[in-house]
Amino acid sequence: MSFWLFKSEPSTWSWEDQVAKGDAGEEWDGVRNYQARNFMREMKVGERGFFYHSQKERAVVGTVEVIAEAHPDSKTDDPRWECVDIKAVQAAKRPVTLDQIKDDPRLSEMVLVKNSRLSVQPVTEAEWRLICDLAGLDP
DNA sequence: GCCAACGTTGGC
DNA sequence: GCCAACGTTGGC
Asked: Mean pLDDT in chain A?
């Protein structure tokens, strides 16, 4: 069981947009980065991830679940790009901000901190539990 | 709005 | 296969 983090600009695709899709979920399309794509290829149905808002907000705002494994990105004809489908699971009672994450030595090794530009990234189980705890989310 | 960091592209 | 140029991302 692996844990993940999906990053999105709320002006493009927000947590609210994701919630509005309900259990049907939505493709995590638009990824044009090999590292991010490769992580999506590793994802299994049922695995969980954080939904992170970049740009102005910069916070973990909820959890999502993978509901379909990697398949071709319907938004492009380029066969290189694939994506998974995810659905919203639970909104954070207290969004965990990037500042909080950076200030916590237990979270200093997060990819979010180390490689801020990667839009799909793995999260360790320890990081998962800690952020869930801070956010008031069920792990 | 700026800029650093990083990934990709294309010429050689 | 290297590397300069360029484009994009995202934090500040």
From this structure: 95
The distance (Å) linking the CA of A32 with the C1' of B4 is 21
In chain A, the domains with their CATH numbers are 3-135 (3.10.590.10)
Does the nearest atom of strand C lie within 7 Å of A94's Cβ? Answer: no
In this complex, the answer to whether residue A29 has its CB under 7 A from any atom of chain C, a nucleic strand, is no
Does the pTM of the predicted model rise above 0.85? Answer: yes
Residue A57: exposed, middle, or buried by beta-carbon count in 10 A (0-12, 13-18, 19+)? Answer: middle
How many residues are present in chain A?
139
Place of tokens 């490689």: A115
Average pLDDT rounded to a whole number, residues A108-116: 93
Closest CA to A64 of A109, A23, A29: A23
pLDDT digits (tens, 9 = 90+) for A25-59: 999 999 999 999 999 999 999 999 999 999 999 99
